[in-house]
Amino acid sequence: MAQAPVVAIVGRPNVGKSTLFNRLVGKRLALVDDRPGVTRDRREGDADLLGVPFRIVDTAGFESDDPQTLPGRMRAQTEAAVAQADAAIFMIDARAGVTPLDETVAQWLRGSDTPIVLVCNKAEGRAAEPGIMESFALGLGDPIALSAEHGEGMGDLFTALLPYIDREDFEEEPEDEDDPDRILKLAIVGRPNAGKSTLVNQFLQEERMITGPEAGITRDSIAVDWMWPSPEGRFRPVRLIDTAGLRKKAKVEDKLEKLSASDTMRAVDFAEVVVLLLDATRGLEAQDLRIADHVLQEGRALVIALNKWDVAEGQSALFNGVKGALEEGLSQVKGVPLIAVSAATGKGLDQLLGAAFETRDAWSRRVSTGVLNRWFEKAVEKNPPPAPGGKRIKLRFITQAKTRPPGFVLFGTRVDELPMSYQRYLINGIRKELGFGAVPVRLTLRAPKNPFEGRKTSE
């Protein structure tokens, strides 16, 4: 199956690239704010323009800074995006007209082998007309006037892009949830500077994410599709999702950081397995436990990675200490996988991916009603439910209602009085004895309807 055609959006900061990206993907995926420089890493999404599917890439605003600075590293990501694209949209702000930086970007694009479509954004109203006329001098062909915010001019954009995105050999296939080789949606979360972007780069063996000593470089959640060469010799598809660091809520005051945190939470909801990355040089902190608890509350499968293992001191004591603290702090789920890794050197990464696939298998597991109830009868016989007030709670049978995460329905009489301790006993038994491991398990209690309820009694 051929890959989807790729289109990159480039331009100086604050011309509306992320607004167009969001319109093409049909969702508010990219963060949008009035201040320049919000987008830093390349962000990709599945776009559709008048029925033609393609991949769209949002890039950081092009700035002419030193390559070693953060803006310089951002520019390197933009240059890589254009080089790998089938076509690029060069966007300018029609109301501001052509700026010296626009001319610099245009000069660079004219030397590129990638086809360029020139777009004048914010073109609604007569104030944009002078800027549109100026753009002819950029030497990139006739400009397309559009408004990314209001959706005007999208038909003209479609006509210009069609020669590069219309591929007869590309057709999207629906995902089969029962296919063991389906793509693993893997989100990497953690506190700022835990090494999340470095980990993604180590997986990909390329500088795909911007990294550096500055805290909070990543703002958007960035998804990248990748094939993992597993130790068994199989290539397994993975969608890696790098996210912004999560600080304690009380410390987050900046609007943009709040948007980034919300974006990370949406990435958790989208993922199947979430890797919580800890900094081995700082150990386990209360914020790590809050993040882990949120992941489990959302019903996602969780794997914990202890990063920077190559520079950690007292490794054995550190590992056992973190493991013990996790057992105590995540009492609702015992035995969450804990893997020591180094994003800098690549240590433990195959073990981490292996644990992620195994955890997803447990998260997706379904048990037949017969096997489930044979286990259930033995569990109840071994430890019968209590009899509050001297009245028995009768548990009749159990069935699995859903997967991803696993959900079970328990039927019986007076189940509303079943203590939480007994419910935990059943959930722990399901995890331990039926192969669900350390994944979140939901248990719903149901009582059969009283056939006489609502009837009038005879006098």
From TrEMBL:
InterPro entries associated with the record: G_ENGA, GTP-bd, GTPase_Der, KH_dom-like, KH_dom-like_a/b, P-loop_NTPase, Small_GTP-bd
Keyword annotations from UniProtKB, A to Z: GTP-binding, Nucleotide-binding, Repeat, Ribosome biogenesis
Annotated binding of GTP 1, by residue: 11-18, 58-62, 121-124
Binding site for GTP 2: 190-197, 242-246, 307-310
Origin: domain of life: Bacteria
Coiled-coil stretches noted in the UniProt entry, renumbered to this chain: none
Domain EngA-type G: 5-169, 184-364
Pfam family, one: MMR_HSR1
GO molecular function annotations of the record: GTP binding
BP term (GO), one: ribosome biogenesis
Family in the record: Belongs to the TRAFAC class TrmE-Era-EngA-EngB-Septin-like GTPase superfamily. EngA (Der) GTPase family.
Function, as annotated: GTPase that plays an essential role in the late steps of ribosome biogenesis.
Quaternary structure and partners: Associates with the 50S ribosomal subunit.
Name of protein: GTPase Der
Organism the protein comes from: Sphingomonas chungangi
Gene it is expressed from: der
